[in-house]
């Protein structure tokens, strides 16, 4: 079985994918859209993509691609602790505070905002496709006085030295990852709550439309764990909503709620029903 993940090797997505599928073939992709399109085109059997972080919130590119381009259901969620480390090439350990640039994924840079402001104020920050990409670049360019923010496994993978551990703003930092697959998958990790993810477009020109949509869940006693809006990319002021509900034992009630939203004039699609697998360490 082939598993697509946001690469290169030693990214956080790689760590999540490897924990979930330790015996399967890992296929690194350069971007999150590449991961999703790989499963869409059936080039791989499973795709693992980040969906939300404790500090920086939702990964918008994932949300948008799941809504606009993906027809593959969400079959599992993996929650991974995230520790961001500042690392340099071994030749620059003594001079790391004089680095000319810090490279990493935009989420990682944002998660380390306080540290970067305090310790490396004014240093250029360069966005890369993934944390592991940044670590690999630093490794391949030993003459450049550049640091990367990446996971510990990236330092080992690419021969870098960690000069600042746990640079993230919040100690209890976690990222949720969605597992996409056309077929059920077996993940030998402890299961927690069952959730269902839903996309909703509100009825047009209906006063209190959002209230009425949410009421379809409320009066059925279905708990929402998340609701978020994203631009519909049609015209200014039009949005779709992504809603996560706790659905254990309530599959029929969730289906009835979606039917009621349709009767109200909205559009509701189930992105998947799945269990949450929460990891304790990376």
Automatic annotation (TrEMBL):
Keywords assigned: Amino-acid biosynthesis, Aromatic amino acid biosynthesis, Lyase, Phenylalanine biosynthesis
Stored Gene3D superfamilies: 3.30.70.260, Periplasmic binding protein-like II (3.40.190.10)
GO-annotated cellular components: cytoplasm
Site (Essential for prephenate dehydratase activity): 175
Catalytic activity line of the entry: prephenate + H(+) = 3-phenylpyruvate + CO2 + H2O
Pfam families per the UniProt record, alphabetical: ACT, PDT
GO biological process: L-phenylalanine biosynthetic process
Class of the enzyme per the UniProt entry, highest EC level: lyase
Top-rank taxon: Bacteria
Known pathway: Amino-acid biosynthesis; L-phenylalanine biosynthesis; phenylpyruvate from prephenate: step 1/1
Gene Ontology MF annotations: prephenate dehydratase activity
Domain Prephenate dehydratase: 2-182
Signal peptide: none
Annotated ACT domain residues: 198-276
Cited InterPro entries: ACT-like_dom_sf (IPR045865), ACT_dom (IPR002912), Chor_mutase/pphenate_deHydtase (IPR008242), Preph_deHydtase (IPR001086), Preph_deHydtase_CS (IPR018528)
The name this protein goes by in its record: Prephenate dehydratase
Organism field: Listeria welshimeri
Gene: pheA
